[in-house]
Design a protein that fits this description.
6 strands, 105 residues, four-stranded antiparallel β-sheet, mainly beta
């Protein structure tokens, strides 16, 4: 049994960093022998703007990288993301649901 623990990351030493958000989608990517990664997509920022971005956290290194979304991808919040490992080195991510425009309650 492997013991897991939380480590607080220091933003000042880590390069680019995604904005604080809620109502985003996230899933774990595991490419086999590669470092595990966390994928974070969209959501709503603290000003109520719906986000159109995609970030990957290298869990072991503690560093973020912003990925380029395809043209036509809309901002999205309240959606889900699921990762499927098809074979070592090949992971498919499916995102569905949610809404493109945040409407506060």
């Amino acid at each position: 049994v492997q013991t897991m623990h939380w480590t607080k990351l220091d933003k000042s030493e880590r390069g680019p960093w995604p904005v604080q958000r809620s109502a985003h989608a996230a899933c774990c990517l595991n490419y086999g022998e590669e470092h595990p990664q966390l994928l974070v997509s969209g959501g709503v920022d603290e000003d109520g703007n719906t986000l159109r971005d995609l970030w990957v956290l290298d869990v072991e290194a503690g560093t973020w990288k912003e990925l380029t979304l395809p043209e036509g991808a809309q901002p999205r919040y309240g959606h889900t993301a699921t990762a499927f490992t098809l074979s070592p080195g090949i992971v498919e991510v499916t995102m569905f649901g949610g809404s493109p425009k945040y409407i506060p309650e």
